[in-house]
Amino acid sequence: MALAGCAHPIRIAPNIDNIKPSAAESPIKKSVAYYISDEMLAREIETPGGGGDRVAYSPYRDMETGFYKMLSNVFVTVTKLNTANDKASIEKNKIDYVITPKLVTNSSSSSVLTWMPTQFSVEMTCDISDANGNPLFSKKVNGQGQAEFSEFKEGFSLSGRRAMEDALLKMQPALLGAQELRASQE
Fold first, then answer.
1. Going residue by residue through the chain (186 aa), what tens digit of pLDDT does each one get?
2. pTM value?
3. Domain 28-179 has CATH 3.40.190.10
4. Residue 2 Cα distances to 51, 54, 161, 165, angstroms
């Protein structure tokens, strides 16, 4: 009972080996950049676990490698921006679009005896703007992850990792299918 009410640290980074290019669609012939602020990368979120406990994680930090890989499956070139309006990088890399991800996460557990979350959700929104910062449109997906108690030998954050991977795997075809992004391909 000494642990009741505490936040257990977990990592919800997806298995990037599962984030593969689409066999059905070729990449969009555009160069994109993405921006995640240092503040967002460092931000720690707490959501419910089981037994009245909570879990703590940094969703943007945990997502970033998988996000880069997913974008690399969708576009011919991907660059990370150091600032939101990094004009030098945008010009140097001939960036067509800038993508800014937003995440909303939640977790829960049906168990009152263990702290690990058995249910996890990741709502991922990609706000897409042109190279000048003018907003164009957004795409939103919802990733879900579940894990049974018997699976926790693979890690206590299994449901979170599955939800993040599910969100990335849903965002990939959402971006590939966006006709706005394929407009005027050369």
1. 344 457 889 999 999 999 999 888 899 999 999 999 999 999 999 998 877 889 999 999 999 999 999 999 999 999 999 998 899 999 999 999 999 999 999 998 887 777 778 899 999 999 999 999 999 999 999 999 988 766 656 667 888 999 999 999 999 999 999 988 877 554
2. 0.91
3. no
4. 12, 14, 27, 33
